[in-house]
Amino acid sequence: MPEVSRFFGIVIRLHFGDHPPPHFHAIYRNHQAMIAIRSLSVIEGSLPRRALGLVLEWAALHQAELLGGYERAREHQRPSPIEPLE
Hints:
Layout: E1 3-7, E2 10-13, E3 23-28, E4 31-36, E5 42-46, H1 49-61, H2 63-74
Antiparallel strand pairs: 1-2, 2-3, 3-4, 4-5
């Protein structure tokens, strides 16, 4: 599962060969959430409120890159790194 970004202790990953809808995985401490790229909604899991806010802010800035990375990962190609939130 390639890591595409890391910021404020949050790790963003895309799985190789993952299932639709397009999504990414956000991990923060002992919490994990699967987030839909197009709607920026939580599909599964949960994050603390502050961490989720940071993840959604970051994802809104990088939606096109996330969609491209998701497609690459589905084809078992390594997605490109994405700039972290600063």
